[in-house]
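pinned: reference chain
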Amino acid sequence: MTALAQTDAERILYLLVLIRLFEERVLKLVSDGSIRGTAHPYIGQEAVAVGGCLPLHADDFVVSTHRGHGHLLAKGGDPNRLMAELFGKATGYGGGKGGTQHMADLRIGHLGSNGITGGGIPIGTGAALSAQLRGSGQVVVVFFGDGAVNQGTFHEALNLAALWRLPVVYVCENNGYAMSTPVRDACAIEQLATRAAAYGMPGMPVDGMDTLAVATITHAAIDRARAGNGPSLIECKTYRFLGHSKSDQRVYRSREEEAAWRERDPITRWRATTLERGWLSIADMERITAVAARTVDAAVDFAQHSPFPHAHALDDGVFAGADEHA
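pinned: its structure tokens
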């Protein structure tokens, strides 16, 4: 994994910065009314998406969550189409009708975001079963939060995946809170990864603020799954720097706690790693950051100048309804 990280040092920094700048811009656009509704920022958790997607093959799959912009971008999604969807424009991933929690790009193996806590876990498990039955050699990475580990779908899916040795890697983004509920108030164990033992699969905690650490442990789990040895559960201990959503004032946690986690900023840490190992220079980092900033600017411009959906598109994608002959 070290050799891979060195080769991809620029790409990793670009994605980390792209996700951060994209989310910061989205929050501003929500505040000024350009984007309607709310947003669930991924700021602080970038290392999980980038490290979790880095070892995947182009035709492998990911399944996302309600906090999913980072997963889509890390898997190779189009920032223009993502931003356009947030603006409600016809050029967006859902034609402007899905919004922040309902996007997919099957061409890159992104099987969709999901507004239901734990809702993507059985979807990813089913995709892994499909890959196994087809003998495609594909692997599925399923992202979900710590709040999802107490959902029935989590237990049912992991049990089935272990029983059938499906090629799936479950990545729990443990950011410490299910909305405002601390993990300690919802789970009787300190390490959520230990739940894997109940299903006979490896359970591995990792520093979710360290991109290389996430990529290394995910790479091993993906190789295991691709070799036919079944699923793994990875617990990435991370932190969302901002609230659960745009309106969350974070009264349930202290500013001291937030400051301590910000000192472990994944972008700052990756920059330090690349400098220490001689992979990138300060000039390289400035260039990469500028490219990411221009990409976000271009995405906003694309979204602003894209058309809204036509009224006749209202029923597009609707496959059930009243029988007109009844």
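why pinned: The CA atoms of residues 277 and 317 lie 50 Å apart. The chain has one domain: 2-311.
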